[in-house]
């Protein structure tokens, strides 16, 4: 079961302008995720809580990859859970990426890059293990998009089970880093609906 990396309902055509921009060519695209791929986020869906130590660790086992590229999160269990966690893996294109997320005690801290796979989790050392600090790695509602977009408005619509969302998704774009092109749909992912993003790209 795969996801459509780029399923362009793509018929390029000439255009003179769109949303106030000068445009020579416009392409529509569609990116569909199954209900399973759009599962609810979880604080430990990538790796269950890992005990921190007075030496740094790099974890490479017992990792569960997201079923579709999406942003990750880290969650400590105590005020002693501090420091920078570095997550390594790949983006939707299979390119190697890393992200540094800073722990905030027992709070959940969300990342911003969309990971297709997770290959390593670096945990910093802690000053004390008296309170058994730990870190869990999970997923968020932020889904990775399959292409670099020139503007956030290029995500034109989001559909849940074929129904158009009344409120637009929160879209983050990068023209150079594929993993930094993401969309957070208005309705929470809960694993019982398909999720479809529709948009355009232009040159």
Quick description:
The chain is 0% helix and 45% strand. The protein has no helices and 17 strands. A hairpin with a 2-residue loop joins strand 2 (17-18) and strand 3.
Can you offer a commentary on this structure?
Strands 5, 7, 10, 12, 15 and 16 form a 6-stranded antiparallel sheet that branches. Strands 1-4-17-13-14 form a 5-stranded antiparallel sheet, with no helix packed on it. A 4-stranded antiparallel sheet has the order 6-11-8-9, with no helix packed on it. It is built from no helices and 17 strands. By secondary structure, it is an all-beta fold. The protein folds into 2 domains: 13-38 and 144-202, no CATH class; 47-141. Helix content is 0%, strand content 45%.
List keywords for this structure.
203 residues; mainly beta; 2 domains; 6-stranded antiparallel beta sheet; 5-stranded antiparallel beta sheet; 17 strands; 0% helix; 45% strand; elongated; disordered N terminus
């Amino acid at each position: 079961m795969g996801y459509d990396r780029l399923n362009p309902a793509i018929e390029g055509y000439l255009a003179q302008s769109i949303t106030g921009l000068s445009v020579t060519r416009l392409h529509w695209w569609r990116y569909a995720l199954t209900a399973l791929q759009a599962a609810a986020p979880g604080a430990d869906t990538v790796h269950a809580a890992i005990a921190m130590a007075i030496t740094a660790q790099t974890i490479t086992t017992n990792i569960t990859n997201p079923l579709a590229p999406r942003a990750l999160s880290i969650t400590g269990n105590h005020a002693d859970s501090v420091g920078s966690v570095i997550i390594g893996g790949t983006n939707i294109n299979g390119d190697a990426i890393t992200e540094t997320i800073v722990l905030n005690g027992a709070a959940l801290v969300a990342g911003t890059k969309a990971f297709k796979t997770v290959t390593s989790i670096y945990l910093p050392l802690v000053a004390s293990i008296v309170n058994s600090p730990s870190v869990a790695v999970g997923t968020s509602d932020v889904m990775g998009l399959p292409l670099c977009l020139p503007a956030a408005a290029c995500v034109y619509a989001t559909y849940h089970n074929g129904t158009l969302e009344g409120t637009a998704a929160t879209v983050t774009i990068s023209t150079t880093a594929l993993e930094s092109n993401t969309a957070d749909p208005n309705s929470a992912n809960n694993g019982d609906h398909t999720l479809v993003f529709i948009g355009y790209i232009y040159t």
